[in-house]
Amino acid sequence: MLHVDAWVQPRLARRAQHLKHPVDDFLFEYYSFSAAKLKTWHPGFGYRLVALQSDYETFDAQTYQFDGSHITLHVDWISDHSRIIRDATNLLAATLNRMPKTGCFGLHEWAMVLNPDSVRHNDYSLRLSQNEISQTITEVGLRCTHFDAFRFFTESAKPLNPTQLTRSDQQTFEQPGCLHANMDLYKYAMLLAPLVGSTVVRNCFQLARDIRQVDMQVAPYDLRELGVNPIKVETSEGRAQFSELQRGFADRAQILREALLHHCVSAI
What we know:
mainly alpha, 53% helix, three-stranded antiparallel sheet, 3 strands
């Protein structure tokens, strides 16, 4: 619990003061899972907890059942969540079996601010000019494979991506080198928390948190006042540094993706 508190207490403190942090708040806001949900503990499917009635009263009665001596996942929970379990199984399996692609260099964030109508994080200035952003995108190229990043590209940037991604073809293009695909493991873990258990959920959150830090380091925003020092992917040295980090995230994500898939398959 202390580990989780180290993540959520700063978030709660900022909310109380009406403050925002574009790095540390992202996972709570983009995925819409509250700090309370992250702190809620789930044993995972297949576990029977020896318990008293008073223990059971702290559990959600729609998620868990009590037989007088043990708490277990409710028999109806899996059937009620069969669609998300099936969808997650299909996407996780398809992604797990692909070779990771690591040549995007985090330029999805650049594509979101290329000649924009408005800047998404307008509390922070860009560390590069529009000319420098455009020049880097032209020289390096866009190679985005994740729809939920691509959909935020500016109208100037979308035609520059080799694939015009849609929600319907997400399973076709999702691949394990993608930072955002690996961050999304937290989304599926949280949606299926009673099934996969809190250990998996929190490992996915930790990975997503680490990825978000790097995601913002390679972004063209100037976030140095927040302690986010840029990885300058406009240079060959910066791109090499990013690729090494990306491969490390992909390795960690594949272990978690396999764990999530195992839990999903066990429930089908």
